[in-house]
Design brief:
Layout lengths: L2 E2 L13 E10 L6 H6 L8 E3 L3 H13 L4 E8 L7 E10 L3 E9 L4 H6 L8 E10 L7 E9 L1 E10 L8 E12 L1 E7 L2 E6 L6 E12 L5 E14 L1 H7 L10 E14 L10 E11 L9 E13 L4 E13 L31 E18 L3 H4 L8 E17 L14 E12 L3 E10 L4 E7 L2
Parallel strand pairs: 2-5
Antiparallel strand pairs: 1-4, 2-3, 4-5, 6-7, 7-8, 8-9, 9-10, 10-13, 11-12, 13-14, 14-15, 15-16, 16-17, 17-18, 18-19, 19-20, 20-21, 21-22, 22-23
């Protein structure tokens, strides 16, 4: 007889003693290698666990298996200790779809809100094309991706990633190549808004890049990375001659350089797509420019720390800090002076603005209350014809948000009042999470200047 163990199991009510795990079996891994799953566990056959702690230990490791991002569901079942202090563990997984050939429709603006409001939902500011992604390519949670788009950008991208390169499963590798060209590019910043230039007959900017990363994961929580990049950027003569000679600095129309990036990650989050407990640390040191012939020499240190505290079954608190510091303190190219408003470096409530700079700092807090947690099943007509269309979990949280940020811009702050100023915003949001890794977040935020509005963020 098997029992599915959860954090609320009755095991914790039994008088405490150690139980020994005699065996671990895995079901449902049609492609995934068994060794990959066992690598994520903090125990192995022959190990002993306190009986009262067994529910929490197994739930924590069930989430570790899901964090591989190749399973839509996972469960752990144990056989009750008939032989006093011995159990057997059975892990059941449901593999996600292996491959996703799909059309591409992607917005080119910094976020959904900018595209929706400032560019009137124009389809001219979108890319169209085809994407092929093969997950779990060899059964080692590796991913291969091919993307080709046209429209606003013409782009071709090839990327491969595998977390398993050696027998001990401690080394990983990823590499890629990308080429893109577009007729429109942001050439300067005014009033903390990007000013775009569109070339009437040619492409405004062309970019070519190659990169390779070697990772070392000596334990369950720590990962070290070393990346080598090569970038070639070409910009139209009109931009540097008539609009912004500091785009690449000194009127240059070409910027090429090698980069070396060292990184350290400590990841102890329970649910990586939407953590409720644990903490995360990332440290990165980037050196742009390795050879005398390189056109860019810029050193940047970056630290990100996030702490997640589960207060009880209903409430959790997220606090996060990210910081970046740059050397030398001389003027960088405008093209490499991005700070707040790009990528994930956003002060929520300021999505319509950018704040450039050498350095940045952001502190984020969110108090989240669980509203819904429910399993959703596909209709019978779908589930009978699709073996992988299994029930999936939907969760919704109400969040109170509070952000503060600052960007230091000694060189391009003229005409940009938010530069070298403290940014602050607060608000309330609704976060919906589906299929474990997909989320939609809608928030109402109010800034220190009194501006307010609704903002949408999504990982779909």
């Amino acid at each position: 007889r098997l029992l599915e163990v959860s954090g609320q199991a009755e095991l914790s009510q039994v008088k405490d003693f150690f139980v020994k795990i005699d065996s671990i079996t895995i079901e449902g891994n049609k492609r995934t290698r068994k060794a990959l799953i066992l690598r994520e566990l903090e125990f192995a056959p022959g190990d002993s666990i306190l009986y009262s702690e067994l529910p929490q230990v197994l739930e924590r490791n069930r989430l570790r298996v899901l964090n591989l991002s190749i399973f839509s569901n996972a469960s752990m079942l144990v056989s009750p200790p008939e032989n006093a202090d011995h159990i057997s563990l059975q892990i059941k997984v449901n593999e996600s779809w292996y491959w996703f050939p799909s059309p591409v429709f992607e917005l080119v603006d910094r976020n959904f809100n900018v595209w929706w409001k400032e560019f009137d939902r124009s389809l001219k500011r979108a890319n169209f094309g085809a994407d092929y992604t093969q997950y779990n390519f060899t059964g080692h949670a590796d991913v291969i991706n091919l993307t080709a788009t046209t429209g606003y950008n013409q782009r071709f991208n090839l990327r491969y990633r595998t977390p398993v390169l050696n027998k001990k499963q401690t080394l990983g590798l990823q590499f890629g190549a990308s080429y893109s060209r577009t007729k429109e590019v942001a050439v300067k910043t005014e009033n903390n808004k990007l000013v775009f230039f569109s070339h009437p007959t040619d492409f405004s900017i062309k970019r070519l890049s190659f990169d390779a990363t070697l990772t070392w994961r000596p334990g369950l929580l720590r990962t070290f990375g070393l990346t080598l990049e090569r970038r070639h950027n070409f910009v139209a003569d009109t931009i540097v001659q008539e609009i912004n000679p500091d785009f690449f600095l000194n009127g240059q129309t070409v910027q090429k350089h090698f980069s070396l990036i060292g990184s350290y990650n400590f990841d102890n989050r329970d649910i990586r797509p939407y953590p409720l407990n644990g903490w995360y640390l990332q440290v990165e040191l980037r050196q742009n420019g390795l050879l005398p012939s390189d056109d860019l020499f810029l050193t940047r240190a970056r630290v990100e720390v996030n702490k997640y505290t589960k207060l009880n079954d209903w409430f959790s608190l997220e606090t996060g800090l990210r910081f970046r510091y740059s050397l030398p303190r001389s003027q960088p190219p405008y093209f490499n002076n991005q700070a707040l408003g790009y990528g994930s470096d956003v002060v929520r409530g300021y999505e319509y603005f950018v704040v450039d700079g050498l350095d940045l700092g952001v502190i984020k807090t969110s108090l989240r209350a669980k509203m819904i947690k429910r399993m959703i099943s596909f209709p019978d007509v779908v589930s009978t014809r699709c073996k992988r269309c299994k029930p999936f979990e939907v969760k919704a949280y109400l969040s109170l948000q509070n952000d503060i940020g600052y960007a230091n811009d000694p060189w391009y702050s003229a005409g940009n009042p938010m530069s070298n100023s403290v940014l602050y915003a607060y608000g309330v949001g609704l976060d919906v999470i589906m299929f474990y890794i997909r989320s939609v977040q809608v928030a109402w935020m109010r800034t220190i200047t009194g501006q307010s509005g609704f903002y949408v963020r999504t990982t779909i």
